[in-house]
Specification:
Strand content: 5-15%
Order of helices and strands: HHEHHEEH
Shape: flat
Radius of gyration: 19 Å
Distance between the termini: 58 Å
Number of strands: 3
Length: 116
């Protein structure tokens, strides 16, 4: 049986995990890493973003254990910790697309009713 304290702890961890997905740059980083492992410089070039900004976002993803690191000399290469992350983000995107389509249908129905 899950106690209320444990349930709250799980919800807090889930919210913290999801907060890592709440930034567009971090989502772009995850999608880039789903294609291939990259270092900060490669990600900066691919995303056309400042290296400091990319590093800051990678730190958040690393702290939430969404990315893994591999060191080779002075170069750190980042990779997805779990490929299911992209599946999860794509599922959220699908839900969002359906909600947008639903709202568009409502607007179209209102416009059609106004024209009738």
């Amino acid at each position: 049986m899950i106690t209320q304290t444990l349930a709250q702890e799980i919800i807090h961890l889930q919210a913290d995990f999801c907060s890592a997905l709440s930034d567009p740059t971090r989502l772009l980083i995850l999608y880039a890493l789903s294609e291939k492992p990259c270092n900060v410089t490669e990600l900066s070039v691919e995303l056309k973003a400042n290296q400091t900004t990319v590093s800051r976002h990678l730190k958040v993803l690393r702290e939430r254990e969404l990315v893994n690191t591999t060191r080779s000399g002075t170069t750190i290469t980042y990779s997805l910790s779990d490929p299911r992350l992209i599946d999860a983000v794509d599922l959220l995107r699908s839900v969002m697309r359906d909600r947008i389509a639903f709202r568009a249908t409502l607007v179209n129905n209102l416009v059609a009713a106004d024209l009738a």
